[in-house]
Design brief:
CATH superfamily of the largest domain in chain A: Tetratricopeptide repeat domain
Shape of chain B: elongated
Number of helices of chain B: 10
CATH topology of the largest domain in chain A: Serine Threonine Protein Phosphatase 5, Tetratricopeptide repeat
Largest interface: A-B, 44 and 57 residues
Number of strands of chain B: 0
Order of helices and strands of chain A: HHHHHHEEHHHHH
Oligomer: heterodimer
Number of domains of chain A: 4
Strand order of the largest sheet of chain A: 1-2
Helix content of chain A: 40-55%
Number of helices of chain A: 11
Structural class of chain A: mainly alpha
Number of strands of chain A: 2
């Protein structure tokens, strides 16, 4: 064998080993940088997944836009188109937000499955709409448009609450409707689990638990799960007021449960002690008021001068007698 | 070295002198720009679409330029141009290296022009600056030309011009697609090229940074693979009869 042939073979082997060594380093690095690659379809499309997703998305818009309605008869076609888009690009945000919702009335279970995947997607972890939509679908009873007797999905409030909570945690300031949805779903899950309580008790108890969690977080250095519900005390007040005067489904007043009354008292004592509330109807009382303006119950007077009993309106010194008040 | 550069410059000048190349670049720019019109049809996804189109068309352009060598080398071998060149002090490996460098430079210039044009179009369409991952994804696309050109030269040397372009397209397609072999690095990325290592088109759209260390290492991989493919080609080329 000639010398130059040997040299070529040696260079070739060295280059091959170097390439293999580098490939060995690069492959895991690429997996780390581009996490979604593992979920992509193995179909041989020469790495053109992203543009294929765009094409499939535009085709989906075209097909779905041309349909009079998406129902149980044609939802499979829509569903398979969306599956294809996910296989090409699992990070396609708009597809989850608009595409999946298109089919949610026709195949809610599949829609929820798609949305759950989106919620687990690392790239979409800052999107709060996706878990909200998931929770929303999970908390609804959806019936077939063509056959009202065919129930396509029934509420799963425990799961719904989990996704509403995720939506709250992902948003810097959660929208009030997200918070209300979370509280409602959690209360319904609680009421479903324990037949002895009603939704009034459940709602109040959910809010009270959240309040306790927030206090615990604050006192224990915010380790573990803390509440992210804004205006928690206001919500507790409203829930306590509703629970005190409950109504049935027809709007007729009903008697509150004994455990509800006990919980209201607890909430009033622990949470709303500084809110100057009427002990009977839990309406906030004005400074200097001797009786509740809502129910006429005698209330504890507050916000007055300790000497002349005139209303202070938050002033340090009484405008009438000049006494210094704390 | 000067002989290699002479062959290389002859190759890239041949390609870059052709007016059709610039016409094709113009067509690519028009296609990239037309993505802006898809705002309604894509429900507001026209911006990612434009990035995707520019990257995909750049890949196609790179493959087309590489394929042009699969016509040139067999033609030179058939018409005896190569034998005239090789009777001079030029070795066969130098001839191949010159062709490889020439085609790689031509493809890099063309893809760089497409990239710059796409950035200008993007900037004027969305009045948005070019994000680093967009630049990195295009850069990796351009760098993928190095191993791609080596594949082209390999098939161009061993097969006639009817078969070589087809085999090159299949090889490039295959090397972008066979992710299932990724667990066998010696085979996939070593003997068989893994062009998917250069594929970060999603990162460009989702603005996820690519570490520069990765860009550096993948460039080294491209060079190592190109050397391996070139030496393999030269071993076959050495025993090949030339008119």
């Amino acid at each position: 064998m000639k010398k130059d042939t040997v040299v070529r073979i040696v260079i070739m082997i060295v280059a091959l080993l170097a390439a293999s060594y580098l490939a060995n380093i690069l492959t895991p690095m690429q997996k780390e940088i581009s996490i979604e690659k593992a979920q992509l379809t193995k179909a041989p499309i020469a790495g053109l997944h992203k543009i294929m997703a765009d094409v499939a998305w535009m085709r989906f818009i075209n097909v779905a836009g041309g349909m009079d309605t998406i129902d149980t008869k044609n939802v499979d076609k829509i569903s398979s188109m969306l599956e294809k888009i996910i296989a090409y690009d699992p990070n396609f945000e708009e597809m989850y937000q608009s595409g999946v919702l298109c089919m949610s009335n026709a195949d809610p279970k599949k829609a929820i499955e798609f949305l759950k995947k989106a919620c687990e997607n690392d790239y979409l972890k800052t999107n709060s709409k996706l878990p909200f939509n998931t929770g929303f679908l999970l908390s609804r009873t959806i019936v077939d448009q063509n056959d009202p007797n065919n129930i396509l999905s029934t509420p799963d409030y425990t799961q719904a609450a989990k996704y509403f909570r995720m939506a709250m945690q992902r948003a810097a300031t959660p929208e009030p409707y997200v918070v209300s949805s979370y509280i409602r779903a959690k209360a319904k899950a609680k009421a479903e689990a324990d037949k002895k309580i009603d939704e009034y008790f459940a709602t109040l108890s959910v809010l009270y638990d959240e309040w306790k969690a927030s206090k615990k977080g604050a006192y224990e250095g915010a380790i573990g799960e803390t509440s992210s519900i804004p205006d928690l005390e206001t919500r507790l007040l409203k829930a306590a007021q509703s629970a005190k005067n409950p109504v049935d489904y027809d709007g007729k007043p009903i008697k509150p449960l004994p455990q509800t009354l006990a919980l209201i008292a607890k909430v009033q004592k622990e949470v709303l002690a500084n809110n100057h509330l009427c002990p009977n109807c839990i309406t906030p009382t004005a400074a200097g008021a001797k009786f509740c303006t809502s129910c006429g119950t005698k209330v504890q007077v507050w916000g007055t001068c300790k000497t002349c009993h005139k209303v202070l309106n938050g002033a340090k010194y009484c405008a009438d007698c000049g006494t210094k008040n704390k | 070295m000067s002989e290699i550069m002479a062959i290389a410059s002859g190759t890239w000048k041949n390609i870059l002198r052709m007016k059709v190349v610039y016409f094709l670049i113009l067509c690519v720019w028009i296609l990239i720009g037309s993505a802006a019109l898809y705002e309604v049809l894509s429900m507001g996804q026209h911006k990612p679409l434009m990035i995707d189109v520019s990257l995909a068309l750049n890949a196609v352009a790179a493959a087309l330029v590489v394929i042009s060598i699969t016509f040139e080398i067999p033609r030179e071998l058939r018409q005896g141009v190569a034998s005239t060149l090789l009777t001079k002090s030029l070795g066969r490996t130098q001839y191949l290296a010159g062709k490889l460098i020439g085609i790689a430079v031509a493809a890099i210039v063309i893809c760089a022009l497409i990239t710059v044009g796409s950035f200008v179009i993007f900037y004027y369409t969305f009045t948005e600056s070019i994000a680093l991952p967009m630049f990195q994804a295009q850069l990796l696309q351009i760098l993928s030309i190095i191993p791609m050109a080596a594949i082209g030269v390999f098939f161009a040397t061993l097969f006639p011009e009817v078969v070589a372009p087809v085999l090159t397209i299949i090889a490039i397609w295959f090397s972008y697609s066979v992710g299932v072999l990724q667990n066998i690095p010696l085979l996939y990325g070593g003997i068989l090229p893994n062009l998917d290592l250069f594929n970060f088109r999603s990162q460009a759209v989702y603005h996820a940074d690519i570490p520069w260390s990765y860009v550096g290492l993948v460039t080294l991989w491209g060079i190592a693979f190109a050397i391996f493919a070139l030496m393999l080609t030269s071993l076959f080329f050495k025993v090949k009869d030339i008119k």
